[in-house]
Structures are given as C-alpha cells and as structure tokens.
From TrEMBL:
Organism: Enterobacter cloacae subsp. cloacae (strain ATCC 13047 / DSM 30054 / NBRC 13535 / NCTC 10005 / WDCM 00083 / NCDC 279-56)
Boundaries of every Filamentous haemagglutinin FhaB/tRNA nuclease CdiA-like TPS domain copy: 45-165
Pfam families: TPS
Membrane-crossing residue ranges in chain numbering: none
Name the record gives this protein: Hemolysin
Protein origin, superkingdom: Bacteria
C-alpha cells in the first residue's frame, strides 16, 4: 500500500408553460395517462415525447418545473425550435409556439417534488443547440441515457440559483447521482453530494464535483452549503464494471475525510485527468490512465495496491 498525505502527482405562483410530470416508465399507449402536465404542452411524435419548453427570457434562460421527470428508452425531445425542425429521435416535429422572443441558450429542467428521476434514454434538444440541465435534489439514475445537440449537459442534485434572470449556480447539499451507461458527445457535468458509477460513462469532457457545495454555472466550487441526508464513505465511487472515458476528466471531492474510490477504469485523453480529493484515493486493482497529464491531490491516503496509474503521453 502506498500512503501519502497531501501528495500531488504530476503524471415562482409558478408560470411555466412546461411545468410537467413526465411519466415514461411504460410504453406510451394512452398519452394522457402517462404525461400529466400542470401548465404547458407535451405531445408525442411517434413514440417519443416532445416538450415545448417554456419561453426563454431576455437572457436566454428557459426555466421548466416538474413534479416528475423520467425518460424511457424511446427518449425525450426538448423543443427549442420556433419552426418545423428535423430531429434524430422522431424525425420532423412542429415548431414551439412558446418561443415568441427567440430560442433558449439554457434549458433548465427542475424537479420540485420528492420524486427521483430515471434517465433511461437519449434526450435531444430540437432546433438550436443549448445547455441542457436536469436538476433534482431527490436523486438521478442514468442507464442508457445521454444527450443530442447540447452545448453542455448538466445533471445535478442541487437547487438552481437564479439571479438577475440568469442561472448563477447550484446549492448542492445532498442526493446521489448513479451513472449506468451514459453517452454524451458534449461536455458533461455531474454535480451531487454522492456520485456512483456502475457502467461505462463516455463524454467529450467530464466534470464531476461531489460534496455539499455551492457550484457556480461554470462548474466551479465557490463555497459550501449545509449538508443534508446520507454521506457515502466515498463521494465518487467507480464500481469494478464502471468506467469514465473522456478527453478531459476532472474529479473533485470536497467533504473532509470523504474520498474517491476507483475499482474500474478512469481514462482521459490528451487533456488529461485531474483528481482532487479531500480524503483518500483508492485505486486498488484498478486503472487511472491518460494520454495527457495526470494530476492527483489527496488529503488522505493513496492506496494503489496492484493498481495502475499511467500517463501514456509522458512515457
């Protein structure tokens, strides 16, 4: 066992046209039975639900509030087009009449009930590309999910903080995000108190921030918040069958004494891997590799028994 302290290795009444309950656990047969809309428009194109997102404000933010937000294997489309558009999931769809003052740059989807979200299919932004955010303090589970036509995908158990009609950041005090299969071609953010990886996660860039944090809209920790709920022994936990694959990987665990455990593979590209743990880093019988630089900082033990940490680009 290698044990090192502080070791650095260089290798609103809410008015939302889409305040919706999207219940997609069953095949869509009777559409009204599976989709319960508080105030807005959800319809289907083939078997794919289409959400006409809320009107974007003058800063380009479309804020949509849900009781339930789940995605089944058929996927889900967020309609960010003022006119008819072609989609990958459902072909041609009609324009979104809510977008009277232009399309959204940020599509914020916030769950305000006590129900967790399951994302088991692809989520597509129709029309103009935008940041897509799923915020659910109750937890998010992904298995076969991902995003199409997004500038950035953010999954968070934080509560969104909106200031001056813009998304300022998130207060993340609890919750768990469990990542099974996730595939996303755009930058991907995972912001939660606990993050568990059970299968292959692939992204262009991957930023995972765990702990009770205030995280700004750029994905940076700028403060702490009062913690709530369960704290895992390892706030970022990659199972033996799990893996992270991205051109750039950034893993941050901020709670004191809570670390990162990798039992699978963390594989970065030319832009490297950065791990910053305010606790231990366990990489026993596992691999951390990159064709770029690997930077590791821990405030606890580094255990790498029969594990492998390799910066291919520096060999």
């Amino acid at each position: 066992m290698n044990s090192n302290k502080n070791k650095v290795f260089q290798l609103e009444l809410k008015w939302h046209p889409v305040a919706a309950s999207v219940l997609l656990a069953l095949p869509i047969v009777a559409h009204s039975a599976e989709i319960n809309i508080k105030n807005g428009v959800v319809y289907t194109a083939g078997n794919v639900p289409v959400i006409n997102i809320n009107k974007a404000n003058d800063k380009g933010l479309s804020h949509n509030v849900y009781d339930n937000l789940n995605v089944d294997k058929n996927g889900l489309i967020f309609n960010n087009s003022m006119t008819e558009s072609n989609t990958v999931l459902a072909g041609k769809i009609q324009g979104n009449s809510n977008l009277t003052s232009g399309t959204a740059k940020v599509i914020l989807n916030e769950v305000t009930s006590k129900n967790a979200s399951a994302i088991n299919g692809m989520m597509e932004v129709a029309g103009d590309k935008a940041d897509l955010i799923i915020a659910n303090p109750n937890g998010i589970t992904v298995n076969g999910g991902g995003a199409i036509n997004t500038s950035k995908l953010t999954l968070t158990t934080g509560t969104p903080d909106i200031q001056n009609d813009q998304l300022a950041g998130y207060s993340v005090n609890g919750g768990t995000i469990t990542l099974g299969k996730l595939n996303n071609a755009s930058p991907t953010e995972i912001l939660s108190r606990n993050v568990v990886v059970t299968d292959k996660v692939t992204a262009n860039e991957l930023n995972v921030v765990a702990g009770n944090n205030y995280v700004n809209a750029a994905g940076q920790v700028t403060g702490s918040v009062t913690a709530a709920g369960t704290r895992n022994a390892n706030s970022i936990d990659v199972a033996a069958l799990g893996g992270m694959y991205a051109n750039k990987i950034n893993l941050v665990s901020t709670e004191s004494g809570v670390g990162v455990r990798n039992q699978g593979i963390i594989a970065g590209g030319i832009n490297g891997v950065n791990i910053d743990a305010n606790g231990q880093l366990l990489n026993n019988t596992a691999r951390i590799e990159s064709s770029g630089q690997i930077n590791i900082k821990t405030n606890g033990a580094l255990s790498n028994v029969t594990g492998d940490i390799t910066s291919v680009g520096l060999c």
